[in-house]
Design brief:
With 375 residues, the protein is mainly beta. It contains 5 helices and 30 strands. The protein starts with 7 loop residues before the first helix and ends with a strand.
């Protein structure tokens, strides 16, 4: 696909409060690719914006970390982690620094200054591959979950975990088959942990080691699929979005943990969301086939879900009134996409993230695309 120029002036004009600029389905249908970067030699595996929203960072299976200017629409920096691999890169609360998970040699989380391309410290505490990594919205910490069945909260100033949690239903083993994912809510006061296809748990970050204050079985909504990734919907965190290994998404009430809607793909021939359809094998393979949930994002107003599919298309759903969907046989509300964006990737769209402050979305396959509305 050709490189489409988009001026800094026109991108700057798109800046506005997304909570006031109604991101309706009609507005979302107008999104188009304004800039595309065919930089990577392999699939992009993660995507994150910094706190200001001025920059985003990607990791790739080609073992590169690439930083882009989201306002100017240009690539700024390329770093490599050839020895250890890289995934789930997160900007931290410290300017010029990122944390990312290793994918080979060991399971260490590496804390890097991208200004100097030097490691600040290593967070050693997992014995299996990291499946979730997220910075705290309010503190100088990052949280990780891994296939050793452990959730760690790391203080950026220390090499040892500030807190460690082993979800009770994993204490007896089975995590390698069941998987684990974790996320902060927007306030940074609550952590949600999804344990395979079995259970969802909520923790108070002020006393996280005391165990969950609420737990709920999710077998009725998960079926045989595992949770590949989990996120709270902005701005209030009143809903939870689970990206499943069968390619579907489940929307739950974040307080009661009861299901609200099941996001499905319209039954167009040959089209489906990314995700492993083979339920056999280990959890890591299934979760990676579903991109660890990195291909699903929620708009900043919390009213729409954006997701990439395995044909390279970008779909969107309206979730502001989930009861408006149709009921499946088991009584769950099913929501079909509101639309598909005008444009696509040349392969599976494995990462997708809506900008936190402006009318812009970034998606990636082997190339990275910036989507905006007409100026």
């Amino acid at each position: 696909m050709t490189d489409i120029e988009h001026t800094a002036e026109s991108l700057s004009e798109l800046r506005r409060d997304p909570l006031k600029a109604a991101l309706t389905s009609a507005a979302l249908r107008g999104f188009h690719i304004s800039k595309q970067f065919p930089d990577n030699k392999a699939l992009i595996t993660s995507l994150d914006f910094d706190i200001s929203g001025n920059k985003c960072i990607t990791t790739s299976m080609d073992e590169s970390l690439r930083i882009y200017d989201c306002v100017q629409g240009k690539r700024e920096q390329v770093l490599y982690s050839k020895k250890y691999g890289c995934n789930l890169a997160q900007f931290t609360s410290q300017p010029g620094c990122v944390a990312y998970a290793s994918t080979k040699i060991n399971d260490t989380i590496r804390y890097l200054s991208y200004d100097t391309n030097q490691y600040i410290r290593y967070f050693v505490g997992h014995s299996r591959q990291v499946t979730s990594l997220q910075r705290s919205p309010v503190a100088a910490t990052v949280m990780s979950a891994a296939l050793d069945g452990v959730v760690n909260v790391w203080d950026l100033g220390s090499v040892k975990p500030a807190s460690t949690v082993t979800p009770a239903c994993l204490a007896a083993g089975g995590v390698l088959e069941r998987g684990i994912a974790a996320a902060y809510d927007p306030s940074g006061m609550v952590v949600a942990v999804a344990v395979g296809s079995a259970e969802l748990q909520l923790y108070d970050t002020r006393e996280i080691t005391r165990g969950p204050f609420k737990s709920q079985s999710i077998r009725d909504v998960s079926g045989h699929a595992l949770v590949a990734g989990i996120q709270f919907t902005p701005p209030l965190g009143d809903q939870l979005l689970l990206a499943m290994t069968d390619g579907s998404c489940q929307l739950l009430d974040a307080f009661s943990l009861q299901p609200r809607a099941h996001l499905i793909r319209a039954s167009a021939p040959g089209s489906r969301l990314n995700g492993s359809r083979a339920m056999g094998g280990d959890a890591l393979s299934s979760m990676q086939a579903a991109h660890l949930g990195q291909n699903v994002s929620v708009t900043p107003d919390g009213r729409s879900v954006i997701a990439g599919d395995d044909l390279g298309s970008i779909l969107h759903w309206s979730i502001s009134q989930p009861a408006s969907g149709h009921l499946a046989e088991q009584g769950t509300v099913q929501l079909e996409p509101s639309g598909v964006w005008n444009g696509s990737h040349d392969g599976a769209a494995g990462v997708c993230a809506f900008h936190p402050h402006i009318m812009e979305c970034v998606t990636g396959s082997q190339s990275l695309a910036f989507w905006t509305t007409p100026s």
